[in-house]
Amino acid sequence: MMQQRCIFIIARGGEAVGTSGQLAIAARGFFSRGWDVHVAVLSAGGGLIDRLIDAGVIVHAVGNRCQPDMAAWLRLASLLRRHNPNIVQTWGSTAARWGLSAAHIAGRAKTVACLAVEPRTREPLMPLLQRASRVVVCSDSLKESWLTRGLGSNRVIVVPPGISAGLAMQVPRDDVARELGLLVDRPWTLCVAPLESSSRIEAWLWAVDQLDVVCPGIEHVIVGNGPLKNKLRRWAKIQNIDARVHARTECRHVTALLPHLRLVWRAGNVAYGGAILDAMAEGVPAVAVDSPAARQLIADNQTGRIVTARPASELPRRSLEVIESDDCFNRYSIASRERVEKNFPIHLFEASHESIIEQLL
């Protein structure tokens, strides 16, 4: 009898959208194709673990803190030695840093790193990525960026993201409002992003402030964690918008929020656009500052808007169009669903990731 193939997927953790959402889809795909799937989560909190467990995937919560630490790394390395997987796959730069090093120390598996951001000027991941069996990126432009840093072209593979309608939790609006402390009769927006400088949280808060002047009463949810957590709350209080900005370091039911949103938006460069792709699958328009992720996901003036970082007024101005105009919202909503179905089919995403893994066995 042939032994069941084992894959260990390494995740930073957090909410089941964006990078973690793509990971959950990939894990479900491997599981449905008969793989023995294990997911090691490096940090505590968020809804990823619940979504994976619901899909029947074995989850190892190796991290007890909001950020990965050495204790989590040691537990991960021990797990890899004990389970001896055929493949170790990491999702995101944080998971790559901790997961690839643990896999190399264990020395028992081929490794695949999945990335959705451009390399930094002095990319600390390069030594680990150069030892990885494959590096999977989500667009041709990202592939070119990583190739210029010295990765071999035969090892960098492009797999566009995948999504489908109906993955979000179906929860009544009243229940979501009660859970998150939102006013049920007001429009809701969402931003999912790590609270760090690249997310340009201060620009997003300024846009919220401007919207509040011309269209008061909008409820804004921001989900993320990071070094700017305390500054976010302080900035919101200084600008007198703290009553309308609902900041959460984790939100286990963020996917339940998606179908009830008027808008998903962001000001910085976030992998997979944060919650943009997940929201588009539910017919929610997106407005984002120009970035590789925004250009890949959003069809400008069809499914939402891509705006320039300067002038800063462009982000709130284009967002206001979606919030105030039902015609604009409905047009973008229909086009978003159509674009997801045509450009980001989930079956192709799952099959592509399994094909990459199969070639390494």
Description:
- The chain has 361 residues and is an alpha/beta fold.
- It has helices spanning 18-32, 48-54, 70-83, 93-106, 126-131, 140-147, 173-180, 201-214, 229-238, 254-257, 276-281, 292-297, 314-324, 326-343, 346-360, and strands at 6-11, 36-41, 58-61, 87-91, 110-115, 134-137, 156-158, 188-192, 219-223, 245-248, 263-266, 286-289, 304-307.
- The strands form two sheets. Strands 3-2-1-4-5-6-7 form a seven-stranded parallel sheet, with helices on both faces. It has a six-stranded parallel sheet with strand order 10-9-8-11-12-13.
- Helix 1 links the parallel strand 1 (6-11) and strand 2 (36-41).
- The two termini are 18 Å apart.
- 50% of the residues are buried.
- The mean pLDDT is 90.
Task: Describe the structure concisely for a colleague.
With 361 residues, the chain is of the alpha/beta class. It is built from 15 helices and 13 strands.
Residue share in helix: 40-55%
Span of the ends, CA to CA: 18 Å
General form: globular
Structural class by helix and strand composition? alpha/beta
Cα-based radius of gyration, to the nearest Å:
20 Å
Oligomer: single chain
| Element-by-element helix/strand order | EHEHEHEHEHEHEHEHEHEHEHEHEHHH
Largest sheet: 7 strands, parallel
Mean pLDDT: 90
Task: List descriptors.
7-stranded parallel beta sheet; 6-stranded parallel beta sheet; single chain; alpha/beta
